[in-house]
Amino acid sequence: MADTQHITAAGNEISASFVAAKKQSDITEAKLNADPGKFTMLTGDRPTGRLHLGHYFGSIRERVNMQNKGVHTNIVIADYQVITDRDTTEHIGDNVLNMVLDYMAAGIDPAKTMMFTHSAVPAENQLMLPFLSLVTEAELHRNPTVKSEMEASGHALTGLLLTYPVHQACDILFCKANVVPIGKDNLPHVEITRTIARRFNERYAKKNPVFPEPAAILSDAPEIPGLDGRKMSKSYGNSIMLGATAEETAKLIKKSPTDSERRITFDPINRPQVSALLTTAGLVTDRDPAEIAAEIGDAGAGALKQYVIKSVNEFLAPHRERRAELAKDMDSIRDVIHDGNKRANAVAEQTLAEVRDAMGMKY
Ligand code: TRP
Predict the structure, then answer these.
(1) CA-based radius of gyration for the chain
(2) What contacts 196, CB < 8 A, 6 or more positions away?
(3) Ligand 1 pocket, mutate which of 116, 153, 182, 219 (most atoms under 8 A from CB)
């Protein structure tokens, strides 16, 4: 069936399947808010660089909220996923440490949230073998995110890129997560995770199901555009890094492109660049971008940029202060990862034991 397209007020195209997923996600969120302690959340990021404002508003803020509500929260730093679409692990150790710094500066508490890396949890990775037996090659090839990532990479499709959604199922299921906050790109991966959980239980664990069928939670935050109005991406140099200095941030915002119309208006379709600046300012000040536009009006792009610089730097100042404080003791950041990995190993060993048991592979 064709996926009908809708256009939102902000000019984004959304599909009927997204609308359905969002509805489902709202139901899940309502259940979670009613009884947070009953939920286990897992989500994560690839350590490909520094975290930026898009990560903060799109996911990190919500993770902190869930953690503080009493949801069992887990974050995977998906280091094996880095090599799905590139042939280097350059800077990976540094990226992992910096991610932990940003998570913690944003309010993730390692005593409450388990943070771990793929590569340090062998029993989690071992789930990949039984899980791969539960999906067909055709199902793997049908994943739209894998297809577009392969095209963007300019590489031939590797075995890991083709199967990484199954690896993501290992991330989610080893700790029996029942909620997975993600962006819409990752919806197909949650879908295959549900399929794997269902098939595993049907095939091997009918009487005593091992895995829950996890539900996706889609972020409510509007997708934050890069400073130039394009998608926020490291390769475009259009993102505001959480850990950048105030000066670096000011420089980046100053050089962002605008248009030749002096009067500032919020019009994402016809004026994507000016509107990206307004959206950014709106998010960090919790104001309506159109109201900011009206306030700046004929003062023009220079005044708008000054406003964005001031509001972004004010918003990020406490984060940056906490980050700098934490960064004084990198050994303790390493300890956080070691401890998270240790806990993840214990959880993964336990789940793998249940899997072996269900499969009769106990000798
Ligand atoms: N694929 C996710 C991304 O690139 C990162 C990720 C890895 C993840 N494992 C996960 C997200 C498990 C949610 C659940 O953004």
Answers:
(1) 22
(2) 131, 134, 135, 166, 169, 173, 211
(3) 182
Measure the CA–CA gap between 216 and 295, rounded to whole angstroms: 38
Going by C-alpha positions, the residue among 337, 357, 301 that lies closest to residue 116 is: 337
Kindly report the backbone phi and psi dihedral angles of residue 323, in degrees, each rounded to the nearest multiple of 5, phi listed first: -60, -45
The protein residue with its alpha carbon nearest to ligand 1, atom 3, reads 45
What lines the ligand 1 site, CB under 6 Å? 42-46, 76, 78, 81, 168, 171-172, 180, 182, 186
Q: From the CA of 312, how far away is ligand 1's center (Å)?
A: 27
State residue 3's pLDDT score. Answer: 58
Q: Are 19 and 210 in contact (CB under 8 A)?
A: no
Q: Give pLDDT tens digits for 184-217.
A: 999 999 999 999 999 999 999 999 999 999 999 9
Structural domains of the chain sorted by starting position, each given as residue range(s) with its CATH number in brackets: 29-221 (3.40.50.620), 234-326 (1.10.240.10)
| Alpha carbons 230 and 276: distance in angstroms, whole number | 8
CB 307 within 8 Å of CB 81: no
Evaluate if pTM is beyond 0.90.
Answer: yes
Please tell me which residue, 55 or 85, carries the higher pLDDT value.
Answer: 55
Residue 110 has pLDDT above 80, yes or no: yes
